[in-house]
Hints:
Structural class: mainly alpha
Shape: rod-shaped
Helix content: over 70%
Largest sheet: none
Radius of gyration: 28 Å
Strand content: under 5%
Distance between the termini: 94 Å
Low-confidence stretches: none
Number of helices: 1
Mean pLDDT: 70
Order of helices and strands: H
Amino acid sequence: MLFIRRKKNLKIKKSKNIFIQEKFFDIEILFSSLKNVKMVMRIELYQYGTMCHKNKAFLKKVLE
């Protein structure tokens, strides 16, 4: 009887550990995707900034 209880407890512990690992993995994926979005936004802002800078320089030349 005691052995059966231990087996059940081990199964419960294993299932809890698996559940926690899956949740942690989901959170890890979420954070990595947020980091990717942040990097893409930085690149787009940089490209937009350089575009604006080039356009300003171009407009200066045209207007002079």
